[in-house]
Amino acid sequence: MTQIELRGIEKHFGAVQVIKDLNLTIADNEFIVLLGQSGCGKTTTLRAIAGLETIDEGDILIDSQPVQHIKAAHRDIAFVFQSFSLYPHMTVFENIAFPLRATRGNRADIEREVQAVAKTLQITHLLVKKPSALSGGDMQRVAIGRALVRRPKAMLMDEPIGALDAKLREEMRAEIKRLHIKQGSTTIYVTHDQVEAMSLADRIVVMHEGVLQQVGSPHEVYARPANMFVAQFVGSPVMNMSDVTVSEDAGHARVVVRGAPTSFDFPSNLTAQLAVAGAQNGNLTLGVRPEGVLVSREAREGFVPVEAHIIEPLGSHDIIDLKVGDQMLRARTKSGFVPRPGEAVWARIDPAQAHFFDSSTGTSFGIRL
Ligand SMILES: Nc1ncnc2c1ncn2[C@@H]1O[C@H](COP(=O)(O)OP(=O)(O)OP(=O)(O)O)[C@@H](O)[C@H]1O
């Protein structure tokens, strides 16, 4: 059982505040991913939990006990870094066994535990080798094995597969997930890669400039982004964002994209919901992911004329830039469905996939259609 709680964490480096009032509770066995751009304070947060960095304000609690006064070595937390930091003169077996030497004297116990971890990570055949004979992925497996072997209260991982090539990263991602399901330990994982975050996390914590933006399951963060930063950071290609005005007309809401000649049809309850949320024209941004832009070759009800502009065929699907007046809208369509550049087609925004944000604060109005 390991629960970790961060209460009102603040951290400065000189005059620069790198963590601002961070509050977060991580449940036992939970896999949490801290996601954000370089420099947003992820690593500093992880190091503070491990005891490698002090904090200026707030409390860090492990199983309800404040730990600020406890040194890193006594927090019983394992840390896996991007750089593998294996001991080059030791074999893989000795590297994994190393953390056990201080705590478990008995050779037979050490042998058994190293073998068990090696089996879990499928590296038994590497135990006699030296790190210099290993590939990048295997080195990182050994580093993870060394962290796991002492069965720490929690695992902290800082971009552990960031240095590997794309194919190996994908493989290691799957392995880390399998390992977590099998081994079950409270894990906090740092990355700037949203795909990695989505595929690994029970919950993603999105950070920006030291401020927590949203905590939620991958689905929540993707489908219900709390603000424009999260909306554009998660998902690829990025969410379309346009300034819009909304008016009511003959039982419909009409959404006009600034610079576009036509309006998109929305259900009439949009205007009522926007009014309740305090949204006002002139301060309204519409966000829609490319899969929320529907494209048709023929005129259909609710579809407006647009022009296919740039087409990126990606095999499983195509990404098409549609010209709507002087605005661009990216759509994701079935592969080969659309047209040549310059061809006139029809588009509609799926109201169920539309997001409305306050243009000045970026906050979502939480509209559900
Ligand atoms: N020891 C330090 N002294 C001064 N500034 C630091 C120190 N460590 C980090 N910083 C600064 O604090 C900010 C947050 O850094 P941090 O490493 O936590 O961010 P990050 O989100 O993990 O980014 P990255 O992925 O690049 O490591 C950055 O602006 C960084 O330059």
TrEMBL record:
Cellular compartments annotated: Cell inner membrane
Cellular component terms (Gene Ontology): ATP-binding cassette (ABC) transporter complex, substrate-binding subunit-containing
Family statement drawn from the similarity comment of this UniProt entry: Belongs to the ABC transporter superfamily.
Keyword Translocase included in the entry's annotation: yes
Keywords: ATP-binding, Cell membrane, Membrane, Nucleotide-binding, Plasmid, Translocase, Transport
Membrane topology: Peripheral membrane protein
ABC transporter domain segment(s): 4-234
GO molecular function: ABC-type transporter activity; ATP binding; ATP hydrolysis activity
Organism, as annotated: Rhizobium meliloti (strain 1021) (Ensifer meliloti)
Primary site of residence: membrane
Pfam families linked: ABC_tran (PF00005), OB_MalK (PF17912)
Coiled coil: none
Stored Gene3D superfamilies: 2.40.50.100, Nucleic acid-binding proteins, P-loop containing nucleotide triphosphate hydrolases
GO biological process, one term: carbohydrate transport
Record protein name field: ABC transporter, ATP-binding protein
